[in-house]
Amino acid sequence: MAIANGTDGIWVNSDNLRVRFGRAEAVKGNSGEYRENTSTHVSEFDVDFSEVALGLTATNVFILDYDTVLPDTAIVEKIEFVTGTAWATDTDINFGTVKRSDFTSIHDADGLVAALILAARNVAGETTVILPGGTYAGALMGVQAGIGFDAVVCTYWTGAAPTAGSGTLRIYWRNQAVAI
Question: Within a 10 A sphere around the Cβ of 5, how many other Cβ atoms?
Answer without folding.
Answer: 13
